[in-house]
From TrEMBL:
<dbReference type="InterPro" id="IPR011051">
    <property type="entry name" value="RmlC_Cupin_sf"/>
</dbReference>
<feature type="binding site">
    <location>
        <position position="80"/>
    </location>
    <ligand>
        <name>Fe cation</name>
    </ligand>
</feature>
<dbReference type="InterPro" id="IPR012093">
    <property type="entry name" value="Pirin"/>
</dbReference>
<comment type="similarity">
    <text>Belongs to the pirin family.</text>
</comment>
<dbReference type="InterPro" id="IPR003829">
    <property type="entry name" value="Pirin_N_dom"/>
</dbReference>
<protein>
    <recommendedName>
        <fullName>Pirin</fullName>
    </recommendedName>
</protein>
<dbReference type="Pfam" id="PF05726">
    <property type="entry name" value="Pirin_C"/>
</dbReference>
<keyword id="KW-0479">Metal-binding</keyword>
<feature type="domain" description="Pirin N-terminal">
    <location>
        <begin position="41"/>
        <end position="141"/>
    </location>
</feature>
<feature type="binding site">
    <location>
        <position position="124"/>
    </location>
    <ligand>
        <name>Fe cation</name>
    </ligand>
</feature>
<dbReference type="InterPro" id="IPR014710">
    <property type="entry name" value="RmlC-like_jellyroll"/>
</dbReference>
<feature type="region of interest" description="Disordered">
    <location>
        <begin position="299"/>
        <end position="321"/>
    </location>
</feature>
<dbReference type="GO" id="GO:0046872">
    <property type="term" value="F:metal ion binding"/>
</dbReference>
<feature type="binding site">
    <location>
        <position position="78"/>
    </location>
    <ligand>
        <name>Fe cation</name>
    </ligand>
</feature>
<feature type="domain" description="Pirin C-terminal">
    <location>
        <begin position="193"/>
        <end position="293"/>
    </location>
</feature>
<feature type="binding site">
    <location>
        <position position="122"/>
    </location>
    <ligand>
        <name>Fe cation</name>
    </ligand>
</feature>
<dbReference type="Pfam" id="PF02678">
    <property type="entry name" value="Pirin"/>
</dbReference>
Amino acid sequence: MSNLEREAVPTLCGGRGDVVGEPVRELLPPRRVTLGESTEVRRLLPSLGRRMIGAWAFVDHYGPDDIADEPGMQVPPHPHIGLQTVSWLHQGEVLHRDSTGSLQTIRPRELGLMTSGRAISHSEESPRPHARLLHGAQLWVALPDAHRHVDPRFEHHADLPVVTAPGLSGTVVLGEVDGARSPGTTYSPLVGLDVGLAAGAEARLPLEPDFEYGVLTMSGELHADGVPLLPGSLLYLGCGRRELPLRATSDATFMLLGGEPFEEKLIMWWNFVGRTQEDISRAREDWMNGSRFGEVHGYDGDPLPAPQLPPLPLKARGRVR
């Protein structure tokens, strides 16, 4: 999924200077953004005051939406550099196409992982016909400098490891949890876990004290470290935790996102993650000139034009509040 806002604002993120080095409970409110023709999302990262959680740099939550009589998700071809996209569904399907020639329908609890590296373009759409409901999350992972120019690729993993406890079942999306490791490729220490909790269940998830974490609530009502959470909310937890107490007041699902605080300072503008003004300017120019990013074949529509760059220079300043 893309950042489709017509007036793209640069986001300055990364660097350990503003990472909370102890446990906190910081509830991040969503910002509502319309994507494509009819899909509205709740944008939770980047937000005012919190730009990243580990290498996780972008989090959208959408649905559940009734799209029985709607086109559903329709995101035209658009470019990316310097990041990975993680497509994660609880309901519905998304048809992915990209400039490497990948064509894949992603279904609930299947991992669609696209590594942009030096340059890729892709589209996402609801298949025709499609399921009645659409519900999921789209996330970006920033690539560290040593890997941000890798060859672009797409991975689809339908069989992911699962961890269980009484009243809890968790699918390991990325990274490792309790000895279970996702087959998805990662380039920095991080974790993504999709968790289902039964109503009334209480559990404790093991955490890495050197990681910072956040909880994205997908459905139902739960308490994470005593904080009540509703769907579409993101609770930032900071670092220094060895476990996370959980309690579900109804059947609930959430995503646990975590990782080592990202050391490098970044510029995130539109669909690009770079280090300098030149990185971003060159990527925009290449996209508009039809070079470097390849073509997405089979999508019924034109590619997205890039917004105009802001008049002021783009600078990487770290995690500014």
